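Why do we bother with a discrete structure alphabet at all? Because it lets us treat a fold like text: something you can write down, compare, and reason about line by line. To make this less abstract, here is a complete entry for Spermidine synthase. Read it the way you would read a sentence in a foreign language you are learning: slowly, and without expecting to understand everything at once.
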Amino acid sequence: MSALFEELDYAPTPIGAISLRRRHILALKTDVFEILLGEEHLMSSLFTASEIALADKGLAALSGEALDVLVGGLGLGYTAQAVLAHESVADLTVIDLLEPVIRWHREGLVPMKTELADDPRCRLVQGDFFTMAASKEGFDADRPGRCYDAILIDIDHTPDRLLHGGSKGFYTPDGLSALSSFLKPGGVVGLWSDEAPDEEITALLGTAFDEAWAEPVVFENPLQDGRPFTQAVYLGRKARD
């Protein structure tokens, strides 16, 4: 049996101290990896259904091959890993604000070790996703204005519960319209939420995209006797013409 608790890394960042820790849960006989910002839990390896669904549902809304995908938010890497599981994906760029998070993947401290860092289709880029989304240059310094088939975002808890103030202007008709300029015709934007579908968020996406809808993601919490929880993936499609 592994040690019951281990802090794998702790580092200051511009938005507060971030830590990566591993806990062994005796009742489940498993290790759980967690990312915390201060005392706030950002992600756990025990609950990954909706992060994976963000990738699977977003890519299911597309057709074609050699897809070019952008993910905002790296975390423990489950959305990015699920994107790369699709053979239709030719290239994946993952943007994360926090250097330590990217370093954890390069050093193999996370559950999937260096899988993402080693995949030739995947680039891990440190940067402010929301600042890039509001710029004219976009997300690729080598190819200003580069467009993607899918942009999948897993950063804030919800548009009303922000990780930090830098994303406030993003969840507006103007902010989402600016993002749409980096989507190819017919491209899809996906937005993760740790709450059940909300009609107001779907309506907000509808102000910037030709189609908008929400997909509920239901999973069971093994720490609460299998109690079901519902989170959401919101999707918006840019007009094909």
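What the structure line is telling us, in plain words: Helices lie at 49-60, 78-84, 99-107, 115-118, 129-134, 173-180, 199-206. The chain has one domain: 47-237.
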